[in-house]
Amino acid sequence: MAKFVRNFEEKAPGLISTAVTYSKPRLATFWQYSKVELVPPNPAELPAAIQSVKTIIQSAKTGSFKHLTVKEAVLNGLVATEVWMWFYVGEIIGKRGIVGYDV
Question: From CA 18, how far away is CA 46, in angstroms rounded?
Fold first, then answer.
């Protein structure tokens, strides 16, 4: 056990510097994307979102969604699944537990 601790003490500074060197460019990339992607929509973007919803409704009415490629259909399914899962996460947070509501 003492040998393990001694080896860890010798290698820890090198491991930490390697981890910092490895994570700096990745954190910079994450920060760059997060500043753009994680902001709430501004009022100028709302008409585009409304038009997108109208297009989806029109696609459902006319049946034009049947002409999507497999790749587009899979991507749409993944987006729908993500929205569905975030709804469940919000429900769990809102009721402060996984099982049942506190009535």
Answer: 44
